[in-house]
Specification:
alpha+beta, Heat Shock Protein 90, 2 domains, five-stranded mixed sheet, 12 helices, 7 strands, about 65% helix, about 15% strand, rod-shaped
Length: about 350
């Protein structure tokens, strides 16, 4: 189907674009055989509208014969034959219309004047054919470009989704590995604590399997999942680990990538609490300002402690996920401030 028919109103615009052609054709007919203005318009307007619909009929031909250098001869011959056939049919229509003007509308000599203009109209018809073919090929080129852009965009979206799934899939195995090591360490010295940690871990994994499969969650649920993880770690660290929240109500329903906070609080434990003998407080803060959501997690920090394996993996994961979800609109900053280590996330405040 021609794109003119794909949207309501396009056909009217298309036909309106042929009115200048009709005016030029009427002027040419008036000058050629000294016709009256009324006769020239009465003949030129139907001829132009007829040519407009013939132009639409060329669409299947242009689609079937795309412009290719290796088919130049075939294209030229095909379009020459089509131009002759189209112009001939167009002239037959014009002859019939001129006869109707002479014998139906009593315009004396209309048919004879039309016969005298046949060579001129044959040239005009061929030029209109060339113009129509050119316009159709331009539309085809535009549609091909738009389709290529659409395909590229879909490919980019699929690639980004695949990247997000891959990054998200790294979280559970990494966390599970650390948790099992912690349970193993507790089993010999605190069997009750190990059993409690197993129970909490089972509940946490159940929740992450359900919620982690989603692309985004409200921040309230993300904080709740982070607290569930920290509850597991409290069994291991006891009074050495304390958590404080400062999350504004307006930020709770903002949506964030699922399991976004879990690797950050895991880092706060592994590279903060675990490295500081007396432990300390992990602060979780969030606020919405000017259409942006700002999340901050800070923890105790020992600058002299040796760097543990995997340092920066969770942070890099968060940075990549936010970059994929909000290209050019997110920011992840990590810095140490004396005996505290702080990670700040800034991203668009998106609600359901």
């Amino acid at each position: 189907m021609h794109p003119v028919f794909s949207q309501h109103g396009r056909l009217h615009i298309y036909l309106a674009a042929w009115i200048p052609v009709a005016a030029l054709l009427a002027g040419l007919l008036a000058a050629s055989q000294a016709r009256t203005g009324v006769e020239a318009v009465a003949l030129g307007l139907p001829l132009a509208m007829n040519a407009a619909f013939f132009s639409l009929a060329l669409w299947p031909l242009c689609k079937a014969m795309p412009l290719r250098g290796d088919r130049a001869v075939t294209l030229a011959i095909t379009h020459l034959v089509a131009a002759l056939l189209t112009s001939s049919v167009w002239l037959l229509f014009g002859a019939g219309w001129a006869g109707a003007l002479e014998y139906g509308a009593r315009v004396t000599g209309a048919f004879a004047r039309f016969r005298a203009d046949v060579p001129l109209l044959l040239v005009v018809g061929s030029l209109l054919f060339i113009l129509s073919s050119t316009v159709n090929y331009l539309i085809l080129a535009f549609e091909a470009t738009r389709e290529a852009e659409r395909a590229a965009l879909e490919l980019k979206i699929h690639a980004r989704d695949a990247e997000l799934r891959a990054l998200r899939a790294q979280l559970n195995p990494h966390f599970l590995f650390n948790s099992l090591n912690a349970i193993g360490a507790l089993a010999g010295s605190d069997a009750a604590g190990a059993r409690r940690m197993c129970s909490l871990l089972s509940e946490f994994l159940r929740r992450t399997l359900v919620r982690g499969a989603e692309r985004e969650l409200p921040l309230a649920e993300e904080v709740d999942l982070a607290d569930a993880y920290l509850g597991i770690e409290e069994v291991r660290f006891g009074d050495r680990l304390r958590v404080e929240h400062d999350v504004e109500t307006s930020a709770l329903d903002c949506r964030v990538p699922s399991l976004l906070l879990q690797p950050l609080v895991e880092n706060a434990i592994a590279h903060g609490i675990a490295a500081v003998v007396e432990g300390g407080v992990i602060h979780i803060r969030a606020r919405e300002r000017g259409g942006r959501l700002e999340i901050e997690i800070d923890n105790p920090f020992d600058a002299e402690a040796p760097r543990r394996p995997g340092h920066g993996v969770g942070l890099g994961n968060v940075r990549e996920r936010l970059a994929a979800r909000h290209p050019g609109q997110s920011r992840v900053e990590a810095r140490s401030n004396g005996d505290r280590y702080q990670v700040t996330l800034s991203l668009p405040a998106v609600r359901a």
